[in-house]
Amino acid sequence: ALQQQECQLLYSRKEGQRPESKAKNRYKNILPFDHNRVILKDGDQSIPGSDYINANVITADIDNGRVGSKAPKRYIETTQGCLQNTIVDFWRMVYQENSRVIVMTTKEVERSRNKCVRYWPEESCTKDYGYLRVYNVRELSLHDHIVRQLELTHVEHLDDTRVVWQYHFRAWPDHGVPNEPGGVLSFLDEVNRRQEGISEEGPIVV
Predict the structure, then answer these.
(1) Fewer CB within 10 Å: N-end or C-end of the chain?
(2) Model pLDDT for residues 68-122, shown as the tens digit of each residue
(3) How far is Cα 26 from Cα 139, in angstroms, rounded to an integer?
(4) Domain Tyrosine-protein phosphatase, which positions (predicted)?
């Protein structure tokens, strides 16, 4: 709680507190920082809040294996599960940032409470989210997570289809941590190997 208060004093969060942004926040006390929030660039500038999504950009130094050499790695960390009225904005962000890997660590419903609205179609189905079309190619259900291969296409640029991998970790308890760390480490290793194997990748969405 003290750390959260310190962050609130250090960094402003005015954009998330605007009237037009409040309906896009799952929790009123978890807001993106203004200095590193994701700004959606394709919105109608005449509509207040069209550039807002509850997400922050995080940059980390990743050791690439060479001694004394670290490369900056860019991540997007969304601080909430999708709401019904933010699904289109979520896919706008994924497309804008050219993200190819999505990591989801929450269940859709937990303890009878909605944690994240389903933002992807059923397997072998297609669904449009605004001007973006998502096709669920296949799903692979493993011990503690599901891997979904999705195809993302702009409806006005049908020749440009991007493969997006969603890693849905289902063993992370609400307000807790997994009992077995080995499963988490294996999951993270799988995610990192996927990201490293994509040459044109943007930041990972978490």
Answers:
(1) N
(2) 445 566 678 777 999 999 999 999 999 999 999 999 999 999 888 999 999 999 9
(3) 27
(4) 1-206
CA distances to 13, 32, 33, 186 from 181, in Å: 33, 29, 30, 9
**Phi, psi for 181 (deg, rounded to 5):** -65, -25
Residues 7 and 120: their CA atoms lie apart, in Å, by 33
C-beta of residue 166 within 8 angstroms of C-beta of residue 153:
no
Tell whether pTM > 0.90.
Answer: no
CATH of the domain at 97: 3.90.190.10
Do residues 103 and 206 make contact, with C-beta atoms less than 8 angstroms apart?
yes
Nearest CA-CA partner of 98 in 189, 161, 158, 53: 161
Number of domains in the chain: 1
Token pair listed for 187: 């999951």
Domain range for residue 45? Answer: 2-205
E strands, 89-197, are 101-104, 109-110, 113-114, 126-129, 132-141, 145-154, 157-169
